[in-house]
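Please, structure for the following, as tokens.
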Amino acid sequence: MTPTNSPAPDSPLPTASALASKARDFRLRMAVIDCETDAALDMTRDRHGRTVHADAAAAARAHRDKAAVEAYTTHLAPHAEALLDAARLALDELPPARHLTGWRAVLDGLESSAAEIRRALDRPAAPGSPAERAQHAALWPHLTAWADHSPIASNLADQRDGQHHQAPLTDEEQQLWTDRARAAQTRGALELTESWYAADGQPITLAYLVEDDDSTVVALRGAPGVPGWQVIGHFAHEYEAGKALPAPVPPGVLRSDISRFNRPAPAPELSLQDLIRDVVEGHSAGDASNALLGAVQRGYAAGPMVRLQELLETSGQFASALETVQGRQIAARLSALGRQIEFLTREVEEAAEDLGATVAVLPPHRTPVLRARSRPAVDTTPPAPPPRASTTARHR
């Protein structure tokens, strides 16, 4: 590690958008490091996800930690404080919104992590020593905090450097276009294409307003499924809309404690293909019974049917967290499907136990077919090929 470097006193201060770009460069490098580490860790696990080469896994994580420190030193170390300052100034200028309190907490956390990283960079351990490995490992949570959450700081800095402004509409024009869009929605001719949140916490949605085989890009403020939304602009194409409308802010997360860089170790699990193979290659009712029971196994090494139910439940939570009418409706559908999967899981479990209780094997007349066939002797005349059907010559 090398100590942090500050910009030279006479050098011009980077713009807020340039600072945001530095953070994006760091995140891109961290994404590459994450992919490389996943590939290395996959080599240390067996086919079911269990770590079988602990030393190699530890070496992969140590290499990851060192690479992350180097990425931060290269891209963010000289600019982290300036980026946070620009983000705070932009945050103070925003109108009140529900998400601002959470964003302030994120900036405070990034500032604390930057201070921890700076202290370590100013007092690096001996290169290649166990102390350096321990130092890098201790910095990993702070580095991933920047990789996970610096988009908020980058977005604030970007928005302050170049605010987007919506195309103005008079009150009469806004009412006219809103009435046209609502009429199109009623007849199914308002095609939603993209949605985001503006800095004031209001949703912005782009849609194609189709009338008489012609379409116009319109921008809606407010949730399209809730009464009260309005058209705030109409455009020739989406690129023009993107330049004129309020810029998007980073979307939220389903669970606040989730990090793509700190995923828990995967639980061992059997794939459906493995379970099907066990049945095909089995001989007794117990073999098929065990495969079925593997599909409905619960707990740490849960089976595919239980994982499917978990997927439906989590997707339902996501749909509900969208806080839209359609999201709540889909969440209810997924909840009902989850209950059906739970019922099927119990039915499969009972059928598996009944199958195992039969104490039976496949009858011997189900004889396997030999796949390897004997080759004919060298002096054996090969059989004559079947006669070819006569065909009429084709002329071009």
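The CA atoms of residues 62 and 133 lie 6 Å apart. Confidence is low (pLDDT under 50) at residues 391-396.
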